[in-house]
Amino acid sequence: MMNLKLKRREFLQLMGWSTAGATLAGCDLPTTVTLEEGKEEVVAYLSPEEYVIPGVGVWYASTCLQCAAGCGIHGRVREGRALKLEGNPDSPVNRGKLCQMGQSGVQTHYNPDRLSKPQLRKDGKLVDISWDEAWKVLDEKVGAAAKTSGARVAWFTGTVSGHQAALIGEHLDALGSRHHFVHEVINNAVGRAVNQDVLGEAMPRLALDQAKLVLSFGADFLGTWVSPTHFATEYAKFRSGTRGVLVVAEPKMSLTGANADLWLAVRPGTEGMLALGIAHALMQSGVSVPDAARPAVAAYAPVKAAEITGISAQRIEQVAALLKQHSPSLVLAGATVEGQEQGYQAASAVMLLNVMLGNVGQTIVSSGEFPFPQLRPRTGNTRDLVAFAAAAKDKALDVAFFYGTNPVYTAPASLGLAEGLQNIPFKVVLTQFPDETAAQADLVLPVASSLEDWGTHVAAYQPEQGVITFQQPLMEGLYPGTPGVGDALLKLLKMREAQKYGAFNDYFSYLQNAVASLPEQYKASGLTNKQLWEQTLQKGLLTVDSAPGSLKTNVGEITLHEVKADAEYPLHLIPSPRLGLWDGRHANIPWLQEAPDQISKVVWDSWAELHPSTAARLGVREGDVVEITSAHGAIKVKVYVFKGVHPDAIAVPLGQGHEGYGRYANGIGANPLKILSPAIEARTGELALYGTRVKATRTGVHEELVKEGRNNISQRSRKLVVTISAEQFRRTEGV
Q: Mean pLDDT throughout 308-333?
């Protein structure tokens, strides 16, 4: 029996099940589960388990951590080595499918640039130290901060959920701090705010497969939006049977836009006006408009909207007619809408279309209330990046922990984050790889990869009944002694809360006890705790009962201002995310560097997408290097001439331009995030990622873009030949 002298309520809080409801009141702590179950007998591989057959793989369920979507995976392990990842068919998130980033998890795991030893800054340099020394230094520094003011300790992470999020919260509570900054460049924070205000839920379920028409305003749901693998499976259903119609309006063609039946190149920053123009056309055809939004809709007749957006009045009326004809529909607002300075208002205009068309309750339904608040995802945004940069600048923090994010790389130079970090006396980075943020740390702690670690995760977007996905090691750790994230968090908690957490030998035993202490409704009759644990790991997830919910519609006033011309900086910069390198976190994976961009087919590089008319005006062609300059910096990239971008825009993909991220990432391309303006979305405080104006100038340099499928590559000044006839070979080679 565990030697934990805690009250029932306190124990449930430790296990992540606190405030789960009255059903917990009669749930007694299982007496059959002890920490001894976390121990395993270690035997030589010369005497393998009975189920291990040389040359035959065994599949284990786990969770993909290559992005925040929370897809379930099956990993094939052969003779103790993880070799291949596929989607878990039991996962409602991805239904057995897995994107290229998920597939590349194996290369992340075996990457030769992984850190294997802790590093401590001494005399201005990071040097290898032992784990004992690392924990000792950490205990001293955090302990000193706790004695003065634990409130000056902060965590800065990417999106986290499950028991990892619960333990981070417990660590901050133990210190008396509330500073948990959660950052993601690719996010839908503005859209979530609109959903909460208009519908009463931040992340309702989107029944894309039930829609007859999908109208997307920059929501690249097949590429990088919310949960792309899930929406790709739903899109397949949407296109099967009675084929649904896809209309996409965006200033730069995305992967979703490339699949559209009708693609509209809208002028950057005017998507909200386009939505109101469509709403006006619907109103003229008899569709009712909520009273609060009527003045805004009345102000944007299709003719006026056409002048502003560059989309003809006929097209606007055509889209409105298609929406009426194909009901129910689904209208989505994505990154190019939400990332504007008036993104909230623009996204509200898009949501207005759903309300007018009656989509709420049909293709937009309630996701319910997830029952365990401690395990809910802490979703990332850019507002926290701005807040953290300000706190660092103001010297408001003494200790900062970083995990799952690289803010020195992702923060615009205008925020001054890199300089502000010098004001934080002790910075700790938990990471697998050296990166730009780790280079400025005082202590770097290597952590296990996702294929050798334990964890639980809750996806922010739950497509069906709520689930907690489980992550289990597929193989032994490559670097003995390197802890998992959960083990590192438990170590930190034991330094502050030894009475509560001292009985847990490791994170494995902590999770075992968490499963064993589940409310009774999650335990099948006659199932022992050991059987429940094994069953959960075999399936890779645990289904939970989300409380039923219902959506409301509360449309407020919508106020949009026209985008003003800028003679000095005439172009709108679009820092476009793409499936693969994502926000730059995968730039150190050769597979994904080699994978061609879905549109341009470029590999191992950055480029600037320019409309042919814009390229002609600048006097450049494909391969010419241009300098893109904003009021906050400049980058140099090669030109890719492309009709799928608005003439007023210049698009540069995210992911490249690293300076300290290993051999496969350093020195390649440019980072468009660095030259962004510090403009803030007016309502939510998010960075306006699509609100930066730039100019492009020729440099006189020309370099070839390396692309898949080129037909003008030569070998020894001759065109490459795939096949030739024997007769031609004899004739040309003199045989």
A: 96
Domain ranges within the chain, ordered by starting residue: 8-113+459-476+504-543, 119-186+372-446, 189-365, 571-702
Query: Could you name the CATH architecture of 119-186+372-446?
Result: 3-Layer(aba) Sandwich (3.40)
Query: Which of 727, 732, 577, 641 minimizes the C-alpha distance to 188?
Result: 577
Q: How many CA atoms lie within 13 A of 545 on its CB side?
A: 10
Let me know if domain 189-365 sits in CATH 3.40.190.10.
no
Q: Global pTM?
A: 0.89
Mark residue 629 as left, alpha or beta (left: phi above 0; alpha: psi -120 to 50; beta: remaining).
Answer: beta
pLDDT digits (tens, 9 = 90+) for 416-438: 999 999 999 999 999 999 999 99
Superfamily per CATH, domain 8-113+459-476+504-543? ADC-like domains (2.20.25.90)
What pLDDT shows up at residue 734?
60
Q: How far apart are CA 445 and CA 142, in angstroms?
A: 15
> How many whole angstroms separate alpha carbon 524 and alpha carbon 513?
17
Tokens coding 521: 């409704």
Q: Which helix (H) or strand (E) holds 75?
A: strand 72-78
Domain 571-702, CATH class in plain words: mainly beta
Q: CA-to-CA distance for 4 and 503, rounded, in angstroms?
A: 7
Task: For residue 4, give both structure tokens.
Answer: 């934990």
DSSP class of 361: T
| Cα(277)–Cα(269) distance, integer angstroms | 14
C-alpha span between 190 and 382 (Å, rounded): 10
Determine if the peptide bond prior to 328 is cis (ω within 30°): yes
pLDDT digits (tens, 9 = 90+) for 366-414: 998 898 999 999 999 999 999 999 999 999 999 999 999 999 999 999 9
